[in-house]
Amino acid sequence: MALFKHLIPKPFRKTTPVVPLIRLGGVIGARSMLQSGLSLAGVEKAIKEAFDVKEAVAVALAINSPGGSPVQAHLIYRRIRALAEEKKLPVIAYLEDVAASGGYMLACAGDEIVADPSSIVGSIGVVSSGFGLDRAIGKLGIDRRVYTAGSRKATLDPFQPENIEDIDHLKDLQREVHTMFIDLVKARRGDKLTGDEADLFSGLFWAGGSALGLGLVDRLGNLHEDIREKFGEKAEIRLMGREKGFLRRRLFGSATPRLPASLLSGEELLSAIESRLHFSRYGL
């Protein structure tokens, strides 16, 4: 019968509703040989494939990210929204462990946001951190030698004492990015936001239940149950961008390969530690 399905007029065909699923997980923008963080280049194919599914009734996003690069978060957000408007398809964002900072920006690509009661949500702010090592190298008898063309080229050098002009410049930059983030959240969530703006945009984060009360999410639930409830028991959830390499599947399964620490370079170890620190900030 499948061979003759295309001969049956569309109004009389029995079709199964399909919800393409795009997984957006990990630190945004962090990329290395063994850890592929979130970037537009990395998820572009999955996003396009999702919106090209002819039987799609909606597109689902499964988000589990503590944030990272605001640029990559914004690029992914804009790509999803552009295709959603072009294809006239609703987008539903499902939050897993954490959707904070840039992870919440990704969630705002959804027309609806669904969180688990224990999901960590929010952190609408901008942070920059580092270390001051100028006194440490002094005690070790190390001279720091920096030569620049441009009086501010060595701005925020951790091996030099803090400069108040550098700090003011950084704060101005942070305010600019923060304002863009706030405007984006307001544009997407509109009158749904019920919390005090001073708290909502302070960088604080909440569990799913509290986020619901603040208007940061639309309801509590999980992906599979929610899709079945909205589109019926026979709705098909179709994962996009699945790894297709036979050898990779045989060697590593569906998981990211994890090699012994002794086989990792210093850069890889630092990347893994940084990723872990991003998640641990939210108690995860």
Give an overview of the whole structure:
By secondary structure, the protein is an alpha/beta fold. It is about 40% helix and about 15% strand. It contains ten helices and eight strands. The longest helix is centred in the middle third of the chain and has 26 residues, at about 165-190. The N and C termini lie far apart (about 50 Å). The model is unreliable at about 1-5 and about 245-260 (pLDDT under 50).
CATH architecture of the largest domain: Alpha-Beta Complex
Kindly provide the radius of gyration, computed on alpha-carbon positions and rounded to a whole number of angstroms: 22 Å
Poorly predicted tracts of residues: 1-5, 244-259
| CATH class category label of the largest domain | Alpha Beta
The CATH superfamily label of the largest domain reads 2-enoyl-CoA Hydratase, Chain A, domain 1
Order of helices and strands: EHEHEHEEHHHEHEHEHH
Beta-strand percentage range: 5-15%
Q: Based on Cα principal axes, name the global outline.
A: elongated
| Tally of contiguous helical segments | 10
Q: How many runs of DSSP E, i.e. beta strands? A: 8
Structural class: alpha/beta
Could you report the average pLDDT, rounded to the nearest whole number?
Answer: 84
Q: How many independent structural domains?
A: 2
CATH topology-level fold name of the largest domain: 2-enoyl-CoA Hydratase, Chain A, domain 1
